[in-house]
Specification:
Elements lengths: L11 H16 L13 H18 L5 H17 L3 H21 L2 H18 L3 H19 L5 H18 L3 H15 L1 H7 L4 H21 L4 H11 L12 H21 L8 H12 L8 H20 L5 E5 L2 E5 L2 H14 L3 H7 L1 H6 L10 H7 L3 H26 L7
Antiparallel strand pairs: 1-2
Amino acid sequence: GGQPRNVQPFSDEDASIETMSHCSGFSDPASFTEDGPEVDEEATQEDLEYKLKGFIDLTLDKSAKTRQAALESLKSAFSSKILYEFIMERRMTLTDSIERCIKKGKSDEQCAAAGLACLLCVQMGSGIESEEIFKTLGPVLKKIVCDGTASIQARQACATSLGICCFIVTDDITELYSTMECLENIFTKAYQRDRDTNGVSSTHNTVLHISALLAWTLLLTICPMNEVKKKIEMHLHKLPSLLSCDDLNMRIAAGETLALLFELARETDADFFYEDMELLTEKLRALATDGNKHRAKVDKRKQRSVFRDVLRAVEERDFPTEMVKFGPERMYIDCWVKKQTYDTFKEILGSGMQYHLQSNDFLRNVFELGPPVMLDAATLKTMKIPRFERHLYNSAAFKARTKARSKCRDKRADVGEFF
């Protein structure tokens, strides 16, 4: 390979400067500056596109480090901005670059390329162009997922990418079933591992099994009901075995998948009955109240929190509704299907999730949010809280927190006299 070039990565500054005039204010009304300098949108858009063209060219560089840096920069740009028109003109070039990097690259480069494939489909949404992208990249992703010689990290990234791209793109039911079968072949190996006493390599593969299980669960949410019934019959009595896994993330993934399966089962059949309910609820209750000293406190807190919700879902058919704020809008997550979908896209979009919820037509469609709400600068100014009011509010909140904590500490403190 040649000498790596000095790649200037796409930064948060690039995103904020370019988008300040029409989007960043949405995610935080307080961030809008009243007397800030006017931004030349056309010039900043041209500057951004010039940078992105450079990154696309660098995905063909001889140096693996340069290619990876270019892929990561494109990922940052795609997660923080809507670039539909720019990508539409270059979708085949981008698809070819991603395909080449997955086929020829090493582990880190393959992971970056698989992540970019997800974001490319998120940007394009569901349509003919996305279908063309998936026809090219789908077989390549499947091949890596099933390749035992590829690195676990690359297989894990490709499993996630395969599930998300299929969720976004495919209207072909046979392609959906084929993708689910590919993912099933991976995570069902975790069932066998529990029967083995010597599962040495199993721990090494756990991250792959988790990604395959979560991607499969996402696809299950868009299956026809008759297929959902078949999958529930096939997996509902096997999944509880994964609750005994040593890996916290696997226990949580299995628990949340169980809650989702119960939710779907009860939607298809109001009188749904699970034979081993007593044994399952015992397991879930044990995880929801786990006090094992050999586990980290943070892990125990996280596990107890998740499994309290899972137990409520299985026993009482209940879901603790969550509210997500983005700009002036609110979205309520009121079921496990919606939670699974939201968590999946939040994982790949990161801090760009709020912006995409506001502006990405595909995501707004998925969450039934309707057309994007466009706010002008004047409206954003009226929404801005004056700095002095924010200061007073923060001071009052800080004092209240301090008092509350002091009371708790007083209760915990040993009362007595010391000489």
